[in-house]
Amino acid sequence: MDSTALCTLRDCTFAYSGEGAALRNVTLHVRAGELVMLVGPSGCGKTTATRLVNGLAPRHFTGTLTGHACTGGLEASRAPLESHARVVGSVFQNPKTQYFHARSTDELAFPCENAGMPAPQIRERVRQVAARFGIADLLDRAIVNLSGGQQQRFAVASAAVLEPAVMVLDEPTSNLDTASMARLHGMIAALKADGVAIVIAEHRLAWCADLVDRYCVFDGGELLGTYTAREFEALPATQREAWGLRALDVSEDRARIAALARAPHTSHGEGTPVLGTRGLEVGYRKRALFRRGVEFSLRIPDVDVYGGQIVGIMGRNGAGKSTFARTLCGLQAPLAGTVELGGESARASALSRAAALVMQDVHYQLFAESVRAEVMLETVQAGGELAAAREQCDALLGELDLLDVADRHPMSLSGGQKQRLAIAVALMGKKRFVVLDEPTSGLDRAHMMQVGALLRELADRGVAVLVITHDDELAAHWCDRILALD
Amino acid sequence: MTQQSALPTAQDAKRRLAVPDYINIGVFSALYFMIVALCALASNIAFGVAGNLLLPAFAALLAGPVFMLLNARVRAFGAITTMGVVLGLFLFVFGHFATSLVTGIAFPLLGDLVARLGAYRNKAALLGGYVLFSFGCAGPILPIWLMKGAYIASLERKGKDSAYIASLFDHVNMATFAGAMLAIVVGALAGGVFGLVLLRRHFAKAGVTQ
Amino acid sequence: MTAAARAAGVRTRALRLDPRAKLTMLAVANVLMFLHAGPAAQSLAVVLFSLPLLFGGKAAAGVRMLAVYGVLCAVEWASALGVDRLPWLHIAGATAAGVCMMMPCLTAGMAMFATTRPGDMVCAMRRMRAPDALVIPVVVMMRFFPTIRHDYRLIRQSLRLRGFAGGGMALARHPLRSLEYILVPLLMNAANVARDLTVAGLARGLGAPGEPTSMVELRMRAVDWLAVALSLAPLAVAAVTG
Questions:
Q1: How do the domains of chain A map onto residue ranges?
Q2: CB neighbour class for B168 (10 Å; exposed up to 12, middle 13-18, buried from 19)
């Protein structure tokens, strides 16, 4: 075995408590200054591998480990987690739930405080890490007010503040837009140049392809193979697709998106558009009592959306996509202009009746105790005809492949099933247009294509579909037109 | 080399609290505090200062699910007490009279002991524990009786006749105190039952409990 | 004053008192209330305890507290004038007097809440030897509060799109249902956040045996001791005037 490796997994088999093996006979090693990428479809075991590297398994994620998992001289099953925290920095997928403190500077000091560093040294380290990663202008702010990209940068900086020898990142770009991914790339490059051993488990390959030294391909808990970067790039794209991986090179997709964005937005279809905007300006005013003026505003080009179309809404985070979506759904008043429903200017209540919004975090929209009850919710409350509704509900569940989970609690479903449930609810409510907010963030290729197919199915029923996304592949393969809000 | 991992299992109600439990306590205490703050706002607007008498009952009614879910996630001694202590501290730092601190620690501790009798699973013990816990919020009620003394003292300082107001307040004293306490019991029982219902219908099925 | 300089602990023009000095104010306020202190001591206390707000960069809050106190005193005084002829004015007077009695506590509390940074509060707690069992929940609470409002708003928006229009009417007519639809997603999300926070915290070394240190170095400076001394003044006044 490579004796210069900082992280070693030798013949590791790991099973979470009460479950089957998540990893089987996996062997890999990472040396200082190397960037190893763990890739594979959802559930392939790459996250479990990262947990063995940073020690969270089996100490926190309990289970049975056979084999040898060693990072920086620490055994995963023997060393306490706080020792691992000094040697390994960890970054997780969701920037919103990763930060421990309310204020940004405290978050950077957090690992140092836990490690028992004296105060002047902590202040010096915080200053250093902020300068090194270019986040000095974000210090001393409330983290909840930062964008997802900024929050994730703080997560990386906080993981790096103890100057660990190893960094482990689990799908760090899931919720990030292109600009944020570029900044993250810069941070990873800086870490690599400093000789840190980096392990990244990811679906999206394109953003750091130029930095990766080796790829480890996983599937079903087994390591299919290890390739150097050059070998990996030389593989045919179909092979990577067969492994369930996302595209290594998205330039083609970007070109197609640019072409779609150039198409005219108004009066290009037959009949009346379901949705239209005229002179729309979205945003919100300053909230203080005596201050007037506008806090944020975005002018939307006039757009018509016809039933049966899938329109992609793209733009960097903070550009106003969510505000636009909320205004379309009648949840927020526009600053100027109107939203038209079926060709006529519509009030907020009418828009709310006609709209469905599938949020990125579906937790905020599921209220019932079973899948069937969720779809029947509005009918039951309105006191409608139950028998006919129930037939329709079961038909919908069958079409969306949810019939065998019809009695389970919505929150116990997988992410994809929850999305389909939200769509079922929208269809049951006979909504005329559906807005989806980042439906494919964190999904592998197969699931991304499934979501695309679902959108197509939805559109084919005559619903107008709008997708807010920064997923180039989804937009290029499935959208009929693109509205670029930059 | 095979090794079973070493974290304590859920079945052991005697286990000591650890970091995951402290974080659960923090998150659910924040929710409980928000509910108390909202109830305080609502009852003070609707009923004026006298609203403080009904505030613990309202809060107990609404916060049942919060208490029950925290318990379902921790199921060990100390969680309820710690939540009470943390809430009491927060209330104190926000300017409530220090009696909030005393009631905020004593009653949750009693509640924790009662719930422990049922190994944090028996429904009757949990309800009893929640009723006792809800009295921890009764701290803000006590100053009202101090206020009566203060007003009478200020009247006397001005040389006014305090007989009228003293008689008014005396009438208010006995009945309202008993009424407020009874309201808390009723509110907590209702809220606790609601919490247990939600636990069964939603949280247990969704897998967020132990 | 750049964010970086502020973070490095350079003192700004705003007054920053040690949390322990502010805790002393709170304690004094409580004692005053317990002793039924008279108006002289009470007024002095309210004015003194609003100083950290006025000089600590939260002047608006300080002015608000003083204004509220002023209004309450006026109401009490006016009702005392007319109470001989209109006995029901006693109620207004009693309410005003009651709230006035709480004002020193509320003002000290507002000063504590508005001018203490979370990091200072945690450092003060650790210096007073508070255990992890107290410090961690407090930190998590302070971090989780802002997200509750955000979550609530998202839930209300979802409900609106589902046809359960918000507002007081729906709440009053179907209280249990409304409560369930709001609390269940809120609590689910709280459980998920708790799960993720635990993983993130453990990965950053939380819960290690031994005392964690603090980036902030709290020291009682001359101005802190002065604040403590000044805050004892109302006690002296109360002792003298009764």
A1: 5-249, 253-484
A2: middle
User: What is the distance in angstroms between the Cα of C129 and the nearest Cα belonging to chain A?
Assistant: 15
Q: A60 — contact with chain B (CB < 8 Å)?
A: yes
Q: What is the largest CA-CA distance in chain B?
A: 87
Name the one residue in this structure whose structure tokens are 């410090």.
C135
**Does the CB of A25 have a partner CB in chain B at under 8 Å?**
no
A5-249 matches A253-484 in fold? yes
Does A59 touch chain B if contact means CB atoms closer than 8 Å?
yes
Q: Which residues of A touch C208 (CB under 8 A)?
A: 80, 82, 85, 114-116
- Exposure b/e, C15-43, CB count within 10 A at least 16 = b: bbbbbbbbbbbbebbbbbbeebbbbebbb
Q: Superfamily assignment of A253-484 in CATH?
A: P-loop containing nucleotide triphosphate hydrolases (3.40.50.300)
- Please identify, in words, the CATH class of the domain defined by A5-249: alpha beta
Sequence spans of domains, chain B? 19-139+184-206
**What chains are in contact with C, requiring at least 3 Cβ pairs below 8 Å?**
A, B
Residue A372: half-sphere exposure toward Cβ, Cα within 13 Å: 15
- Mark yes or no for CB contact C140/B82 under 8 Å: no
Which residues are CB-contacts of A322 (< 8 A; sequence separation ≥ 6)?
Answer: A437, A468
CA of C181: which chain B residue's CA is closest?
B198
Identify all chain C residues contacting A357, using CB atoms and an 8 Å cutoff: 157-158, 161
Q: Which of helix, strand or coil describes residue B55?
A: helix
Nearest to A23 by CA among A9, A7, A37, A35: A9
Cβ contacts from A onto B, under 8 A: 41
Nearest chain A residue (CA) to C159: A365
B200 in contact with A, Cβ within 8 Å: no
Which ipTM value was assigned to this complex? 0.90
8 A C-beta contact, residue A40 and residue A48: no
pLDDT tens per residue, chain A (486 residues)?
456 788 999 999 999 998 888 999 999 999 999 999 999 988 889 999 999 999 998 989 999 999 999 998 898 888 888 899 999 999 999 999 999 999 999 999 999 999 999 999 999 999 999 999 999 999 989 999 888 889 999 999 999 999 999 999 999 998 888 888 999 999 999 999 999 999 999 988 889 999 999 999 999 999 999 999 999 999 998 898 888 888 888 888 889 998 888 888 776 777 888 999 998 999 888 766 666 777 788 888 888 999 899 999 998 877 788 899 999 999 998 988 999 998 888 898 899 999 999 988 888 899 999 999 999 998 888 777 888 889 999 999 998 889 999 999 999 998 888 989 999 999 998 899 999 999 998 888 888 998 999 999 999 999 999 999 988 899 999 999 999 887
Contacts C197 to B, Cβ<8 Å: 23, 27
Task: Enumerate the residues of chain B whose CB falls inside 8 A of the CB of residue A421.
Answer: none
All residues of chain A having their beta carbon less than 8 Å from the beta carbon of residue C122 are: 106
